[in-house]
Amino acid sequence: AKIVNESDIHIVPTLNPDGFENSTKGICLGHHKGSGRHNGNLVDLNRAFPSWDDLAETKEQLMAKSEPEVAAVIDWIFSQPFVLSANFHDGAVVANYPWDDSHGPERERSISPDDATFIDLASLYATSHANMFQGVGLCHEDNFPGGITNGAEWYIVKGGMQDFNYLFSNCMELTIEVSCCKYPMESELQKHWNDNKESLLSYLEVVQGGVRGYVRDENGDPVPNAVIEVNGIQKNITTSYFGEYWRLLSAGKYCIRATSPDGSLLTEWVQITVTPMDSKKHVRVDFTLSSLGAENSVNTCDLELRVPVAPAAAPVKPASSPVPPQSGAQKIPVLEQLTIFLVFHVILLTSLRF
Length: 354
Known about the structure:
Layout: H1 2-6, E1 7-12, H2 17-22, H3 59-64, H4 68-79, E2 84-89, E3 94-97, H5 115-128, E4 148-150, H6 151-154, H7 161-168, E5 172-177, H8 189-205, E6 210-217, E7 227-230, E8 233-238, E9 244-247, E10 252-259, E11 270-274, E12 282-284, E13 287-289, E14 336-343, E15 348-353
Parallel strand pairs: 1-14, 2-5, 2-14, 3-4, 6-12, 6-13
Antiparallel strand pairs: 1-15, 2-15, 3-5, 6-9, 7-8, 7-10, 10-11, 14-15
Helix pairs in contact: 5-8
């Protein structure tokens, strides 16, 4: 009940209805048309999302050059304060985490700024699964230690959805490979559900952890698009229309602060301790942006050697802010509502209530 009461859960049955309609039941391998990978325009949608090369473009520019299904998802992701998501594929049994894309050679890890957190997320899913954690002897010649893999270390994918979410929004996403067969028979579905049920529940509960809070100005009003920095992690997130933020982190000690959207105002660093993901406990830190700046706030970060001290360089920020409420809508305290989205056969998105 807590998952439903404290999380907004969005489920997309399929991102590629044309591909599903044209697929052949029982097909286990292949990239041909009958495999269901392609949409009505014969485009593989998990190679069709914006990538690193598109970071300078606006939402409208990204949508204009995308396939209809991809454009719809881009618009949706930019309009919601999603925190965590998963997209579900078939063809293997493994939890895959970013980066999928890489400028390096095949079979080498492509490490994101939140590598430790992604590894924890993937490991949580795999270890809660009936057999994914075994990593070997499940499908073909696959060998995934612990049942997880860095995307590029498996094989490089440019234009995948999980990289898009991490690059262009606050949302952290995994790709979950559910079955050795790309189009399993109906008779196998109950077993796949049983195998994944505890993993899905554990994954949904992850959003109750990390750090969250509000960013307000000196008048007490929420600050949309304020930037939340985690010292030493080169990935920033931004606040919602209501000034809320949620940030998932692996267990450990961190220093965080908030800055105004234009960077002119900032708070002092605050030191926090994040508990393990399966603890279902979060840290609450609210910030006030003042014209007096950091001089008017209290530094609780002791800057021990094990705590990163250099501000993150070249942060990645979402390209746009969430859609504000309609005229007359109340500014309600929704910090405890976390948003998750899941896309089956290609998502699970989550956001939180405060």
